[in-house]
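Hey, I'm writing a tutorial for new members on how sequence and structure tokens pair up, and I'd like a real worked example in the thread rather than a made-up one. If someone can provide the structure for the chain below, I'll link this post from the tutorial.
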Amino acid sequence: MVTKLKTLTEQVAEHMIAEISRGIYPVGTKIPAGKALAETYGVSQAVIREVTERLRVQGLIDTRQGAGCTVRSRTSASGFQVPGGLDQQGVDLASVYELRLDLESAAAALAAVRRTDDELAEMAKILRTLEDNLDHAERGVEFDTAFHTAIAMATHNPYYTDLLQYLNLQIRHVVNTARMNTMQHPGLASQVHQEHVAVFEAIRAGDPLLARAAALTHLLRASARLGLTLPGREAITGASASLNR
């Protein structure tokens, strides 16, 4: 039997979970900043961001912009979980993508009618930064994820934000692989970026139907670029076909 090697994220997360469980980081106290943790574990700050997000979705820590991460509990919260060791080329990942199709298209539609001017400005800022980093896979993943999170936040429903951030964590490594592949094909990175722009423009226009269709088109194309098969999605493909003309 072949033993699957753990990723750096899994290794660091397990170590931190154990330390929180033992009370090394007591409930109510802050864990060290990302830069300090990266130096402690000898990993990048991108890995630490993945680790803290994993701890957050497990209910172990709370995170606040500008306030750092505070230990919330010594034990993980039970409830909905997607396995950390997804079959990233098979049915499991396709199923997660299918779930994202419904969630993120609905989020885009809600964002189109609920977004504020400040939220639109934040999306536009992320898109500009993403465009500046199209040729950098790691930063591209960061801002790609940030854009989808910004849309979720614009729904003004915190559960969209929490669940979509969690699902993005599960497929982060695959998105990185996809972006690395995209960089091998001239012009494809710009094409992917225009899919994001189409979603943003529909949200800015306040058109929920167009926003939903644009999000579906983007995610269907993204799943196709990963070689995933989503059986029974012919109706969705047809619904978004008008955007391809």
